[in-house]
Amino acid sequence: MFLARGNNEAYPGRQGALVEATCDGLASCGYENLYYSALYTDLSCQTTYDGAIAGHTQMAAYAALCPHSKLILAGYSQGGQIAGDILGGGGGYSFNGCYQPETPPLDRTTSPGNQIAAVIIFGDTRHTANQPYNYGNGSNLNGWFPRPASQLAALEAWTNITRDWCVSTDPICAANQTFSEITTHLGYYNVYSDAAASWLKSIASLTGTSSFSTAVPTSLSGTIQNYATVPTATPSGTVTLDTTWTSTTSITPCTALSYPTPSFTSEPANATELANMSTTTALVPLSASSAVFPITTSSAASGSAGASSSGTAKGSSSSASSGGVSNVSRSTSGIFGALVLIGSAILF
């Protein structure tokens, strides 16, 4: 499971509950955090851009190492936007009128896209009304920044394995409603983790084979900020491009596989890696992807975590700085300066 966390969350964020519910009963299951800053005071379109690149590079590296694995992409809030950007392509205006540079959609027919078995998103900032993969009573509502037609067309390719979950009282994925409650946005995983896990296991054809249980610590590496002590306005600025990340295309694509019937027993080395996720620090410095890390902003606090063979997740942390070398000047006119809603919109 690749997790894209929400704004101002430590790794792995609220989605830890979803990992627990999904991995219980599965002897070979774990998660990897996507590397990007989620600090509120970092430029949101920068960190979202970074997260989209992280998704492409990290999943490609993992798929190359473990070609018989099934991948699940999960995103919450800002991380929901990142998950959508990975699959459908990213780019466009965001908070405070900041422009996020375009990134391409993931190809479902080649690695790592052909190993993605399920996608689940909650509380997406770019939730777009009436899409075929929408789920929940907020399906007919727009978030703060609905997607353009080109991105929606690319996302449709993932419809049969995707749920974009939105509740109508969530002020982030269902913006500008007469009545909303921030507790809806913050409480998805308290309410829906079991139902979401059941769907993930069904759609990805995951069958429990043991009494193996997973326990994910509620707080791992990653820095969060106290909203009472930080500026109340979302930051403005321009995005620093990472000009090296496309080098990941040098990874030789895995042979297309029929992921409903992977064989871990025929790949002992892969099975060992999957069962001992705490050792997956080796995944990042692969020759094809090492050049693109670190990719987050200089103030980022990054970390990685995984489930060990005993079922207890363990985490380690590292700092990261931008790998970009050029700047893109975009509008900073503060189009959405009035967007800040104390206690709600800052939690995207």
TrEMBL record:
This protein's UniProt keywords: Disulfide bond, Hydrolase
Region (Disordered): 300-329
SMART domains listed in its UniProt record: Cutinase
Coiled-coil annotated residue ranges, if any: none
The keyword Disulfide bond is assigned to this record: yes
Origin: domain of life: Eukaryota
InterPro entries, alphabetized: AB_hydrolase_fold, Cutinase/axe
Molecular-function annotations in GO: carboxylic ester hydrolase activity
Protein name: Cutinase
Source organism of this protein record: Friedmanniomyces simplex
